[in-house]
Specification:
It is a single chain. The chain has 8 helices and 7 strands; from the N terminus they run H-E-H-H-H-E-E-H-E-E-H-H-E-E-H. The chain has a 3-stranded antiparallel beta sheet. A two-stranded antiparallel ribbon has the order 2-3. Strands 6-7 form a two-stranded antiparallel sheet. With 197 residues, the protein is of the alpha+beta class. The chain has helices at residues 5-8, 24-34, 36-47, 51-61, 108-114, 135-138, 141-144, 171-193, and strands spanning 16-19, 68-79, 88-98, 116-122, 127-133, 149-154, 157-165. The longest helix has 23 residues, at 171-193. Helix 4 runs antiparallel to helix 5 (108-114). The relative contact order is 0.23.
Length: 197
């Protein structure tokens, strides 16, 4: 259901989850045969299947602003290698939270929240429903803000950097809501093609 960046194209900074089954293109074509209004209604209903996921993601983004991350030490972490290779140990930083020294907002979290949308794709090479964060609206922080910690220049001083906690908003709502989203898509298609929608 969720595809990795190299499978979906567009690079890793456009996080996305896609529902590809059933074949959306075929369903929309069959709905158009019934009538253009049925197809329009189906497309509108399909765009709504990700609403609950996006609502949960926006609730996380609207939550309390995370503070700065002060390095508190290091620990050894066991990394499970991919491709059947042997696991290995790696030293990673450990951070403790401290209050951010800045109260005013730049509106970055609101822009990231506004970038979240559900898109219906019914092309000849690709068909599905995707929940995505649009980088053209939310900027580079659609990816950066989803990290546990991020390092960025201090506002007003490009030579000084600070580590800050991010606000991982992306995957948990998707894990919780993907089955329900797929069920909604199936119900919308069934209703449209059987004269209920």
């Amino acid at each position: 259901m969720a595809r990795s960046a190299h499978q979906r194209g567009g690079g890793p900074d456009l996080p996305e989850i896609t529902i590809t089954s059933p074949n959306i293109r075929e369903a929309l074509a069959r709905a158009k045969e019934i009538g253009p209004a049925v197809q329009r209604n189906l497309r509108r209903n399909l765009r709504g299947v990700g609403d609950d996921i996006i609502k949960d993601q926006r609730a996380i983004l609207a939550g309390q602003k995370p503070g700065n991350a002060r390095k508190a030490g290091m620990r050894v972490k066991r990394i499970q290698a991919k491709g059947g290779r042997k696991a290995y140990l790696r030293t990673v930083n450990v951070y403790k939270a401290e209050a951010a020294g800045r109260d005013r907002s730049t509106g970055m979290r609101k822009r990231v929240a506004a970038s979240l949308k559900t898109r219906v794709v019914a092309g000849s090479t690709r068909s599905g429903i995707s929940v995505r964060a649009d980088k053209s609206v939310g900027g580079v922080m659609v990816k950066g803000w989803n990290k546990k910690t991020l390092r960025h220049p201090v506002f007003g001083n490009k030579d000084q950097f600070v580590t800050q906690f991010g606000q991982p908003y992306w995957w948990e709502p998707i894990k919780r809501g993907r089955i329900q989203a797929k069920d909604k898509a199936l119900a919308a298609i069934d209703d449209a093609l059987n004269g209920k929608g």
